[in-house]
Amino acid sequence: MWDPAVYHRFGQERSRPFFDLVARVGAERPRTVVDLGCGPGELTATLAERWPGARVVGLDSSPEMIAKAAALGSPAEFRLGDLAHWRPGPGTDVVITNAALQWVPGHGDLLTAWVRSLPSGAWFAMQVPGNFDAPSHRALREVARSEPFADALGDLVREAPVDDAAGYAARLLAEGAAVDAWETTYVHLLPATGDEHPVLRWMEGTALRPVKAALDDTRWRAFRATLGAKLTAVYPARSGHVAFPFRRIFVVAHVQEEK
């Protein structure tokens, strides 16, 4: 279960890659704009502001997120759905997917299918986290695979489920698209306030969500405490802040007139 309030804890830091991604989309008058993995909807609403003449649709698999998005009063439409089963309609001129595809197994094949189905002149833009080898995620895997957690978590905590920018670019270039691909490492300076480590609080909004769902309350508290101690060791506070480097992978593809 996704918790919009927990996800919003670091809203400014989480939203920055979205705006950096969308800034590279050159569509002028798209007919339909789709945001795959729209979450609580605030970022999708900005797409309706940028392209007021377009039909803007947000899709997410979380009922909690869609309920939050629907309450915004935005002209964008919000729908519950599985990204793995989505296919673009004939008027889909822009597809945005921000920090969502890492949750979709086999999404590389989906990219190929989507770009093949988009009309000439359409834009596809994606961003996924590339921090799976960061100290935060190495610590997460270490704790998850130790006792007394390993039996409940098993392979739930994944190795890197994403490709790098060059790999995604090669896939979309093979479909005849013009591709712009890059990677950025944001250094988030998280305030070190209170008793809880800020990187732990960050991870609760995303990577720790399936872990919490798999553990009972007692083991979840123990897991959280163990991971928090490891994060404190690898991300020390300095001058009241914790520096949290976060690598992101971006790809923008423009479908050419002759596919």
Structural notes for this entry:
It is a single chain. Strands 1, 2, 3, 4, 5, 6, 7 and 8 form an 8-stranded mixed beta sheet that branches. It contains 11 helices and 8 strands. Strand 2, helix 4 and strand 3 form a beta-alpha-beta unit. The protein is globular, with a radius of gyration of 19 Å. It has one domain: Vaccinia Virus protein VP39 (Rossmann fold), CATH 3.40.50. It starts with a helix and ends in a 5-residue tail after the last strand. The longest helix has 18 residues. The mean pLDDT is 93. The protein is an alpha/beta fold and 259 residues long.
Summarize the structure.
The chain has 259 residues and is α/β, with parallel strands linked by helices.
Structural class based on helices, strands and sheet pairing: alpha/beta
Number of domains: 1
Largest sheet: 8 strands, mixed
Distance between the termini: 40 Å
- Approximate shape: globular
Q: Catalogue the unreliable spans.
A: none
Which architecture name does CATH use? Answer: 3-Layer(aba) Sandwich
Question: Which helices and strands, and how do they pair?
Answer:
Elements: H1 4-7, H2 11-22, E1 32-36, H3 42-50, E2 55-60, H4 63-70, E3 77-80, E4 92-98, H5 107-117, E5 123-129, H6 135-144, H7 150-153, H8 165-173, E6 178-191, H9 198-204, H10 209-214, H11 217-234, E7 237-238, E8 241-254
Parallel strand pairs: 1-2, 1-4, 2-3, 4-5
Antiparallel strand pairs: 5-8, 6-8, 7-8
Helix pairs in contact: 6-11
Task: Provide tags for this entry.
single chain; Rossmann fold; 8-stranded mixed β-sheet; globular; 259 residues; alpha/beta
